[in-house]
DNA sequence: GTCTATACAATGATAGAC
DNA sequence: GTCTATCATTGTATAGAC
């Protein structure tokens, strides 16, 4: 289907994961990643704005999925229903293989402040997108913001539990449990 | 009190703000900032890990203040009392001049993805610190996390309101109002 | 203990050829 | 879409001056 090997971005991700596992993130140059994928540094930076984005290339699609999930919720849905619809869509976008890749990436993030900063930026991008959609549906910016924070927290905490201690459960269930735990703790905030 | 001009970091911040206002963040080099402050690039990087940190140098102190605020709350304080104590301390650490500097920095952040990423990282650092302290006092990680998100949101939204439309009010009051608004909206999340 | 001089590796941008 | 080549800038490292 063309003069070059297909799936350039995927090949770059794969090459990066191997090299980072061997040498660490900092000790690996963009040129090395490109070379292992059979490309040059210039080409890598044509596909990704920076070295970090090679690892986070999956996130934008997740955001779109979450938004679509909220938007496809039925008309009479409650605030919490909308949030759950978004999270469910998000979770179902994960294929089982991503559990292992996710673990790998999480380890790299934990070891690199540079990656941690980008990871938090991505997390906040999901929250912001969720907030916007929820605000449209609910007509209440504050409620939307609070809900988005809650949902994103449930998603990240859930993902972490899922890949650490609940590997055989479905991600959607773990996240739903986490969200339910927040619900049951909220009355303590309001003052009972 | 020494052989050199005092307040090196403050001078660098001042120089950076002037140059960024003139030329924008991207078009200003670290060397230019240093030169305007009467220093060299080497010295700038001795004081700050990177160019962005010149702008965010105030944040670490704010984190310490917020934590101290929570820790100094009386023994019988409720979860919400603890959060309010932290936020109050945070707000009172702001001197009036910081309203204008804060506005300036916010404009720069809005115009630069690079700065936005760092700003979000700083926000999350405040949330994480708050969460840790609250968890210690409350003995409940989940509650602490949810509370920290809520508090940090109130602080940032409050700051934004304060510098945009409520300049003459006290920051602490604006933030307290914002937090109260979240409290009143929370029952809608629990499901009434 | 803070600053400077110099040299250096890596990022990321850019222009032009295939 | 990729490559070669070149480039400015970031940020580091070293060794020394006051």
Report on the architecture of this protein:
- With 192 residues, the first copy, chain A, is mainly alpha-helical.
- The first copy, chain A, folds into 2 domains: 8-50, Homeodomain-like (Arc Repressor Mutant, subunit A), CATH 1.10.10.60; 58-190, Tetracycline Repressor, domain 2 (Orthogonal Bundle), CATH 1.10.357.
- Chain A contains 10 helices and no strands.
- Chain A has helices at 8-23, 30-36, 41-47, 53-56, 59-71, 79-92, 97-111, 113-138, 141-164, 171-190.
- The longest helix of chain A is centred in the middle third of the chain and has 26 residues, at 113-138.
- The radius of gyration of chain A is 19 Å and the shape is elongated.
- The mean pLDDT of chain A is 96.
- The A-B interface holds A 78-80, 116-118, 120-121, 123-124, 140, 142-143, 145-147, 149-150, 153, 157, 181-183, 185-191 and B 78-80, 116-118, 120-121, 123-124, 140, 142-143, 145-147, 149-150, 153, 157, 181-183, 185-191.
- The structure holds a DNA duplex (18 and 18 nucleotides).
CATH architecture tag of the largest domain in chain A: Orthogonal Bundle
Please bin the fraction of helical residues of chain A.
Answer: over 70%
Structural class by sheet pairing and helices of chain A: mainly alpha
CATH topology of the largest domain in chain A: Tetracycline Repressor, domain 2
From the N-terminal CA to the C-terminal CA of chain A, the straight-line distance is 63 Å
CATH superfamily of the largest domain in chain A: Tetracycline Repressor, domain 2
Order of helices and strands of chain A: HHHHHHHHHH
- Beta-strand percent range of chain A: under 5%
| Strand runs of chain A, count | 0
Question: Which runs of chain A of at least 5 residues are low in confidence (pLDDT < 50)?
Answer: none
Task: Using a beta-carbon cutoff below 8 angstroms, give the protein chain pair with the largest interface and the number of residues from each chain.
Answer: A-B, 30 and 30 residues
Tally of alpha and pi helices of chain A: 10
Average pLDDT of chain A? 96
Q: Please, how many domains of chain A? A: 2
**Assembly state here?**
homodimer
The first-level CATH class of the largest domain in chain A is given as Mainly Alpha
The biggest beta sheet of chain A is recorded as:
none
